[in-house]
Amino acid sequence: MEYDDKLVRFRQGHLNPFDKQGGAERHPADSEAQPPKDSSTISPHSIPEYHCPDRVMDLGVSEDHFSRPVGLFLASDIQQLRQAIEECKQEILELPENSDRQKDAVVRLIHLRLKLQELNDPLEDEPNLRILLEHRFYKEKSKSVKHVCDKCSTFIWGLIQTWYTCTGCSYSCHSKCLNLITKPCVRSKVSHQAEYELSICPEAGLDSQDYRCAECRTPISLRAVPSEARQCDYTGQYYCISCHWNDLAVIPARAIHNWDFEPRKVSRCSMRYLALMLGRPVLKLREINPLLFNYVEELVEIRKLRQDILLMKPYFITCKEAMEARLLLQLQDRQHFVENDDMYSLQDLLDISSGRLGCTLTEIHTTFAKHIKLDCEGLLL
């Protein structure tokens, strides 16, 4: 009893100003030793009315001033955590919409799910570099949750999961998904092949694919049973929803044959390939579609400017002042412009269509001509 008397005196003099929950249970000794208080008086050991100590969901996640640190769960196995998650989900549905109690329950649900994920996929010491099917995977240090695994199509939880990104094609995936990858890095295809599919959506039909995804060979169907078939506008092939996320990209064949730059839906593999090929000058327009120059005036203007620059190039190579001023480096992002006048990249065509390339190339042409006609002392002598 001496201990209880001391505890009562301590509680009388030490109220918690941050505990705003009312209507809590108190020890019987408290009722006898203290006079009745106003209903606004705050109890130091108040417990929210939705707290139920018998439920699994409250193990280790309910907060009080004498509890374990945040994140320390008493539930030790996966089955208990799953039961706690289900209870928490049910409570969220029963609580008033947008209430503080519902928000607190959502926070507890997040903590429970993170703990379950941690138990399912514990952190391990992983190497910083993994080489697989010509991919060069480097371990990522970002803790952001804005990334999605390219293999399993689920979120990458950087706080508790190890994940990698290929430096060649930007393929991102969980460490546990690395050994499930079946496709080689598309950068190797860019290095060895370096050419576009120049037919517009060359469809062969699902039967030619044996009604399977062109990449992972998952069974697919146009009726979405067992899995939806999505067509890639670049290859014309069909893919499952894990390999085709409805990403949009400009199709080279449509740009060359129709001067059409509207982005269309492509598979993940095609999107990475087109991104790597975007700046490569592999399109010889005069051979692929010579009539294009009759209908697109901007192409004629660009070709004339490029021809003039090629005529100026020998002067700059022999001019000491031009070499010191590094005039030709103004075209370092489009090196092919000082090598020939007939090769184009898809990025060139995009910039021609938008008008950016015409303005930029005209300014560079003016600078080159000014140096030759007015500034170069060697030519003026």
How would the blueprint of this fold be written?
Layout: H1 2-13, H2 28-33, H3 78-94, H4 100-120, E1 129-132, E2 135-139, E3 163-166, E4 172-174, H5 186-192, E5 230-231, E6 238-239, E7 247-249, H6 252-258, E8 264-266, H7 268-277, E9 283-284, H8 285-288, H9 292-295, H10 297-318, H11 320-325, E10 343-344, H12 346-354, H13 356-375, H14 377-380
Antiparallel strand pairs: 1-2, 2-3, 3-4, 5-6, 7-8, 9-10
Helix pairs in contact: 3-4, 5-7, 10-13
Description:
The protein has 381 residues and is an alpha+beta fold. It has four domains: 2-120, no CATH class; 129-180, Wheat Germ Agglutinin (Isolectin 2), domain 1 (2-Layer Sandwich), CATH 3.30.60; 199-277, Zinc/RING finger domain, C3HC4 (zinc finger) (Herpes Virus-1); 289-380, no CATH class. 39% of the residues lie in helices and 8% in strands. It contains 14 helices and ten strands. It has helices spanning 2-13, 28-33, 78-94, 100-120, 186-192, 252-258, 268-277, 285-288, 292-295, 297-318, 320-325, 346-354, 356-375, 377-380, and strands spanning 129-132, 135-139, 163-166, 172-174, 230-231, 238-239, 247-249, 264-266, 283-284, 343-344. A four-stranded antiparallel β-sheet has the order 1-2-3-4, with no helix packed on it. Strands 5-6 form a two-stranded antiparallel sheet. A two-stranded antiparallel ribbon has the order 7-8. Strand 3 (163-166) and strand 4 form a beta hairpin. The model is unreliable at 20-54 and 60-75 (pLDDT under 50).
Shape: elongated
**What's the number of structural domains?**
4
Strand content: 5-15%
CA(first)-CA(last) distance:
113 Å
Low-confidence stretches: 20-54, 60-75
Question: How is the largest sheet built, in terms of strand order?
Answer: 1-2-3-4
Given helix and strand content, the structural type is alpha+beta
Count every beta strand, where a strand is a DSSP E run of 2 or more residues. 10
Q: What is the C-alpha radius of gyration, as a whole number of Å?
A: 34 Å
What proportion of the residues is helical, as a percent range?
25-40%
Profile the largest sheet: 4 strands, antiparallel
Number of helices: 14
Q: Which sequence of SSEs, written as H and E, runs from N to C? A: HHHHEEEEHEEEHEHEHHHHEHHH
Average of the residue pLDDT scores: 79
